[in-house]
Design brief:
This protein is an all-alpha fold. It has one helix at about 60-80. The chain has one domain.
């Protein structure tokens, strides 16, 4: 299946070619992208024309990493009594 600018999810109707669905999306990277992108895309959940887009097929591994990150931050704040 080719994912273009206007491709939408058959279940929810949301656009698929968005930064948060891309394998290069990384909140900790410059412009939140591991690719050398020229233009900073502000709305990561909105369809865009990025030529580097590749669908993320890691079955939720990114959400697990974010969950682990949030847990680590929570523990650090508890350690320093910053809750």
């Amino acid at each position: 299946m080719t994912i273009g600018y206007q491709t939408v999810c058959s279940h929810c109707g949301e656009h698929l070619k968005v930064c948060v669905n891309c394998r290069f999306y990384d909140e900790s990277a410059y412009h939140e992208c591991r690719e050398a992108v020229e233009e900073h895309i502000l709305d990561k959940k909105r369809a865009n024309f990025c030529p580097s887009f590749m669908i993320n097929q890691n079955d939720g591994q990114a959400s697990k990493a974010n969950s682990n990150k949030e847990e680590a931050i929570k523990r650090l704040k508890a350690l320093f009594n910053e809750e």
